[in-house]
């Protein structure tokens, strides 16, 4: 059975706290694992969450501030220590190539795994597989930052009543799915579009076009809400979002499940993020993330 879920490894911004590790998020998507923004301590959080190096297939770094990337060195070395048998791709802003190189080769170790570097320097599709396309969109932060989005191709949902009305059953169902026509019956006559699932990961940024493009129509949106609304000036000055801003984006983009994360250490009451998100008018499913949380991708519409 395919598994699609988010495993939250860390939720702190800038510095860890007693209860929050630096950033780290693993998206399980069928048989693949995509690791986003491995901050310091990610390798240990993976252990606590039951995530192995063998589970990783891609690493996506939004930008090269330490709380989003200092864990790269340990994760890459663990991948090699465990001799992961498959290729792993790494995506990150091309402008931060020197930082990626330093982290990849921070200390001596034996390279045993094919790690393919696929840096990002513009909006667009980074990779296409049978089950998703991975896209990037530029964000607004003091250093160059990109958000990531997975889009599953649309499929078809066969409609039993229409199949029966046309007398189509057994092997003929598969035949019309493959060929698009059976006699004088078209596939459109007995099926409807099944919209593919969509996931987006939006970290350090001010409000900008890229945020909205990433969030549009998402089933699951993971988005930073570093500040509460009363500190919106700090958010703008430092290139971040407030809880209300993140929720407004989700509301306007038709997001089904909103996950708020990347919280400033100045706040002690996580429930206030939820209150402000609801006050902004978001009515979908809402999660204020905590470390080691698992969030399933919502079922298809």
Description:
With 301 residues, this protein is an alpha/beta fold. It has 11 helices and 18 strands. The strands form 4 sheets. Strands 6-5-4-3-2-1-18 form a 7-stranded mixed beta sheet. Helix 4 links the parallel strand 5 and strand 6. The longest helix has 11 residues, at 243-253.
Strand content range: 25-35%
- In which order are the strands of the major sheet placed? 6-5-4-3-2-1-18
Helix and strand composition category: alpha/beta
Average of pLDDT: 96
The SSE order reads: EEEHEHHEHEEEEEHHEEHEEHEHHEHEE
Low-confidence residue ranges: none
User: What percent of the residues sit in helical stretches (DSSP H or I)?
Assistant: 25-40%
Q: Oligomerization state of this entry?
A: single chain
Describe the largest sheet. Answer: 7 strands, mixed
Report the end-to-end length measured between terminal Cα atoms: 19 Å
Radius of gyration: 21 Å
- Tell me, what's the shape? globular
Number of DSSP E strands: 18
Determine the number of helices (DSSP H or I, runs of at least 4 residues): 11
């Amino acid at each position: 059975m395919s598994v699609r879920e988010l495993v939250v490894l860390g939720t702190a911004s800038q510095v860890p706290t007693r209860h929050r590790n630096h950033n780290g998020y693993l998206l399980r998507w069928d048989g693949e694992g995509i690791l986003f923004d491995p901050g310091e301590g990610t390798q240990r959080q993976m252990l606590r969450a039951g995530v192995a190096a063998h589970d990783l297939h891609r690493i996506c770094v939004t930008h090269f501030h330490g709380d989003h990337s200092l864990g790269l060195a340990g994760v890459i070395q663990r991948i090699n220590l465990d001799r992961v048998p498959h290729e792993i791709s790494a995506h990150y802003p091309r402008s931060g190539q020197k930082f990626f190189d330093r982290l990849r080769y921070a200390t001596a170790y034996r390279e045993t795994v094919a790690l393919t570097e696929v840096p990002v320097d513009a909006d667009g599709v980074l990779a296409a597989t049978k089950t998703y396309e991975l896209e990037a969109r530029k964000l607004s932060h003091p250093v160059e930052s990109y958000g990531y989005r997975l889009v599953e191709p649309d499929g078809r949902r066969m409609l039993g009543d229409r199949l029966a009305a046309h007398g189509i059953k057994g092997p003929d169902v598969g035949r019309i799915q493959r060929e698009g026509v059976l006699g004088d019956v078209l596939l459109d006559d007995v099926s409807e579009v099944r919209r593919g699932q969509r996931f987006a990961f939006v970290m350090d940024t001010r409000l900008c076009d890229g945020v909205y493009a990433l969030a549009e129509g998402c089933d699951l949106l993971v988005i930073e809400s570093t500040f509460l609304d009363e500190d919106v000036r700090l958010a703008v000055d430092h290139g971040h979002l407030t809880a209300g801003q993140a929720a407004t984006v989700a509301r306007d983009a038709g997001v089904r499940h909103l996950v708020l994360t990347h919280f400033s250490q100045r706040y002690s009451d996580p429930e206030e993020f939820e209150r402000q998100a609801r006050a902004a008018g978001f009515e979908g499913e809402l999660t204020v993330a905590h470390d080691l949380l698992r969030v399933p991708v919502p079922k298809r519409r």
